[in-house]
Amino acid sequence: MAGKPTKVLVKRHALVTRLTHWLNVLVISLLLMSGLQIFNAHPALYWGAKSTFAEPWLAMTKEEIGDQPRGITTVGGLKFDTTGVLGWSGPEGMREQRGFPSWATVPSWRDLATGRNWHFFFAWLFVLNGFVYLAWGLLGGHLRKDLLPNRDQLAPGHILHEISTHARLKFAKGEEARRYNVIQKFTYLAVILVLLPTMVATGLCMSPGFNAAAPWLVDVFGGRQSARSIHFISAGLIVAFVVVHLVLVVLSGLWNNMRSMITGRYAIEVEGGRS
Amino acid sequence: MSLNRRHWLTAAGATVTSLWLAGCDKLATNSTFTGVLRVAEKWTYRAQRLVADRNALAAEFTPADISKDFKANGTLRPQDDEYTELMAGGFADYRLVVDGLVERPLELTLGQVRALPSRTQITRHDCVEGWSSIGKWKGARLSALLAQAKLKPEAKYIVFHCFDTLEQTLDGSGRYYESIDLVDAMHPQTILAYEMNDATLPVRHGYPLRLRVERQLGYKHAKYVMRIEAVSDFSQIGRGQGGFWPDRGYEWYAGI
Question: Which domains are present in chain B?
């Protein structure tokens, strides 16, 4: 335990991880924004096989309240005034009725055809990118070695400890920083193996051609309108993941994290003499 | 986090976001870029034709599933003279024309269409906007009609010319039409519907005849069909993309 801590650069991210990660940044952003464009063509969601137009579980509409147009978002039985963002948005005097505002969609104006063109092109890229990552991650051992929790990390005591340090935004240092913490591992695995595949599967269920070829899949999700709802909710969960991810990237050392995702090298501090 | 750093990050974020949005809008109007994006439609079409069973049936539902609020889009009542005149005469003078690359061009009365082998199906109608409605359809099998007209070997697509003008244009390209390939044309569920939910097809849903092509989105299901033409390519029809909405940027293959 002698000596001052020394900074060493360890190899953290393989080239495949880095390339697929940055391609995903681009592709998921465009999928999200073109997806919101598509959603805006009918900004209402239902459960089951068909639409029950009088009873969407989620809807973004324009309503006249007094004689003022307001953007109203209905979730379940609850109504929220979301003027300026959802339902009724745009610069003062040029407001228009639309689900999500122009800054959230590609293109910014209402254009379902273009939104679909973008969405399907980048959906193909997303699937190909994901396939490369998963094939390499499974065959090369990345998923097993880096993302599967180690035996010691699964001890209840360890998990509780991680939750408490994570909640206080204390990040691992020294030798422990060589690996992902257990919460990180569970989160990454859930996103990679559950959330993103759900996104692809529910997306495929929007295709009437695919539904005829594999009718069981749309049944798994409870019908096409349920699949559309789950597609939307999953997109929301991806956004939530990205927000938390970005906050933690900044708080746990923006430059070190950025360097590791660009060059692959991550700096950790180890006790002197053992670099 | 220091105030300085927070400001810096906020400013950088705002700059990147506005550049990103402006860049996307610019690319969305760039014809080279949109041309590249549209290759995805060919990938989807080829992948589905390659991997999926070409005769796979779209899911069928029970009478209890039928929508009471089946939505109608596009033209709801054609104002075109030919249509209103036929309507005045109760469509007695209506003839469904089948021509183009066929050995035996046909002109059929509604009675003759109804006498063709038929199929009844309760299916889900998926609009490109995202909603779905379920309806019961009865109609003449398109494959039976085409067998009667005998397609020439060079026929590759079936074009449906409609009565309704959906957009007023100077060159007449605002008239509705659609086209499908022979895989979908010969599919058992592809019918010219004349009944919906056990009643005569309502005008808003395409009276007298409406195409049902169950493995594609709603805009392919041409309403108010007046003429069926077999062609080897559709580049000379409308604006050349194979349909009213494809001419306006939507996919010709709407199985996605």
Answer: 1-52 (no CATH), 55-248 (3.90.420.10)
Distance from CA of A31 to the nearest CA of B (A): 12
Residue A275 has pLDDT above 70, yes or no: no
ipTM for the complex? 0.94
For residue A144, the 8-state DSSP code is I
Q: Check residue B68 and report its DSSP letter.
A: S
Contact criterion met (CB < 8 Å) for B1 and A251: yes
Task: Please list every residue in chain A whose beta carbon sits closer than 8 Å to the beta carbon of residue B214.
Answer: 208, 212
Which of B28, B67, B129 is nearest residue A50 as measured by Cβ atoms?
B67
pLDDT digits (tens, 9 = 90+) for B15-62: 988 899 999 999 999 999 999 999 999 999 999 999 999 999 999 999
Closest residue in A to B22 (Cα) is: A108
Are B216 and A209 a contacting pair at CB < 8 A? yes
DSSP, residue by residue, A182-238: HHHHHHHHHIIIIIHHHHHHHHHTT-HHHHHH-HHHHHHTTSHHHHHHHHHHHHHHH
The answer, as to whether pTM is greater than 0.90, is yes
Nearest CA in chain B to A51: B132
Residue numbers in A near B50 (CB within 8 A): none
DSSP for B101-130 reads: SBSS-EEE-HHHHHHS-EEEEEEEEE-TTS
Q: At what angle do helices B39-51 and A112-139 cross, to 10 degrees?
A: 60
- Chain B residues whose CB is inside 8 A of the A114 CB are 28, 34, 249
